Amino acid sequence: MEKILQITAGRGPAECGWVVSQVLKLFLQETKSEGFRHAILHREKGNQNGTIQSVTICLTGKNLAPFLATWLGTIQWVGTSTFRKYHKRKNWFIGTFELEMTQTMNVNEKDISFQTMRSTGPGGQNVNKVNSAVRAIHTPTGVQVVVMDSRSQHQNKKLAITRLKEKVNEANLAQLKDRMTDQWENHLNLQRGNPVRIFKGTDFKQTKENKSFKPKRQKLKQETNKTLRQVQGKQQKWD
Hints:
The protein is α+β, with helices and mostly antiparallel strands and 239 residues long.
């Protein structure tokens, strides 16, 4: 299984970029401990040293979905700005989002068509008279290259295959970058409430929220018992 995750500060200030850098460290630690492999696909540095505005990570491994579910959403850091000493704000938010996988195109030589033509430019009469130049076209994508480096048509064909593969790989990378650009909406839609994880202080300790109703039930039971004792005490006075 393969997943792509984006951790972003959105349009947040340097403090949010610092939070992204801290979250990235913890996230990669958990990734390693869970046995998943990762690769950084794209990293956009923040305006201040040690800050990251956005990072995109490719994860591979089994049962990724349950692991990512504990990270996807809003992450909150509660702390004092290390960049603006007297800034009153204490709560900072970043977002983690799963990106849709882009379909990469692998080049199969069976999908390449070739056209021969006369070379142009210097190189002697042999180059200009013989169809030694080669045009290679990758049929599924329409990507094409023309090679006329050598007087040998066979050599030009080999070079054309290599360069065509490089060009298709560049197209795959451009497609991924376009996808990340499309995800800019993620930067604009950070939810400020209901964070999936909360960290506090410059040591970045995680605060775990107890979402169980058991403490509330115990508190309600105690308040009820207290009220009953008060009522019973009043009744005894009256008696």
